[in-house]
């Protein structure tokens, strides 16, 4: 399974999204589920899935699905 597919699954599970949400183009606060509380749940779920730990600045800067992909690639996750 690709990094994008794994991450898409984490977003869907952590934010409890339905199939109508375009996860790959999702940005922070685009939907009610991705508020500050949802963000922390999402970050924790991503860290668990990919066995990584984000720095505080990365947590704050994670503003979209695409940014999360880039961060994970930078950490060597999913390779």
* Category from helices, strands and their pairing: mainly alpha
Q: Level of helix content?
A: 55-70%
Radius of gyration: 11 Å
Assembly classification: single chain
| Proportion of beta-strand residues | under 5%
Question: How many E strands?
Answer: 0
Cα separation of the termini: 11 Å
Compact summary:
The protein is mainly alpha-helical and 79 residues long.
Written account of the structure:
This protein is mainly α and 79 residues long. The chain has 4 helices and no strands. The longest helix is centred in the middle third of the chain and has 15 residues, at 36-50. This is Acyl carrier protein. InterPro entries: ACP-like_sf.
Write a concise keyword list for the protein shown above.
4 helices; Acyl carrier protein
SSE topology sketch:
Layout: H1 3-15, H2 36-50, H3 56-61, H4 65-74
Helix pairs in contact: 1-2, 1-4
């Amino acid at each position: 399974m690709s990094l994008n597919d794994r991450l898409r699954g984490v977003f869907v599970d952590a934010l409890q999204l339905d199939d109508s949400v375009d996860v790959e183009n999702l940005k922070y606060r685009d939907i009610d589920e991705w508020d500050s509380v949802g963000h922390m749940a999402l970050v924790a779920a991503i860290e668990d899935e990919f066995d990584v730990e984000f720095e505080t600045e990365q947590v704050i800067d994670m503003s979209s699905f695409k940014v999360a992909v880039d961060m994970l690639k930078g950490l060597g996750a999913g390779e």
